[in-house]
Amino acid sequence: MSKPIVGIIGNSYKIDNKYPAQGSGTINIEAIAEVSEALPVIIPSLPNYFTINELLSSFDGFLFTGGRPNVHPSYYGEKATEAHGVFDTNRDELVLPLIKACEKIGKPILGLCRGFQEFNVAFGGTLHPEIRELPGRMNHRMPPDGTLEEQFAIRHEVKINKNSVFEDIFGSNKVMVNSLHGQGIKEPGVRVIIDGYANDGTPEALSIKDSIGFCLAVQWHPEWNASCDNVSKPLFQNFGKNLRLPSN
Prior knowledge:
This protein is of the alpha/beta class and 248 residues long. It has one domain (5-243): Rossmann fold. Helix content is 26%, strand content 23%. Strands 4-1-5-6-13-12-11-8-9 form a nine-stranded mixed sheet, with helices on both faces. The protein has a two-stranded antiparallel ribbon with strand order 2-3. It has a two-stranded antiparallel sheet with strand order 7-10. Helix 3 links the parallel strand 5 and strand 6. The model has no long low-confidence stretch (mean pLDDT 94).
């Protein structure tokens, strides 16, 4: 029996700071291959080379990964400022309609960090440019120094809503997660349900109301150490299970 195929949304970057390239972190590939038990394929964020319908017909599900560039604020009705950081509008043009198209037909999708923010914007929500500048909020950004193990280390608790899909997946109302983001949800989009919050009130997990398929996103990076972490593993396992449903 063939494995389901998961499209991993890639990011643009430059090799040696000059040669344009597209790629994704190995940890995204490992999480899909080892935990979801699917075939990982990186999709370049270059929307001029394929259509949404071509992607929908070619893949069984999609992973919307993290990435340094932020969603351009013009997509949620605000002006760009220095606090918004850098952008990748090619990725914006690809992912925002793809998320909506997948949700409409029940194609399994999972969003991580930037992907979490993309889900919210796709459904009409807005973003804060810098979480740490809000009163009472902690600094959710990646530590600037240290090893990868230190930067991706568990940093805070997320409280999960009772009777939510995440409670069913994690088997708990409290989970411990890493934190490597600067922006976050300001106003939830239409049908966006915030299913989990950090102790400082920052939204950390979301689902889409009345969605007919797996359509979940988290603000943290569960792809790190996904095969061993007791929060990450069930999330990617559940994603893999949904990839294998008859409708897919």
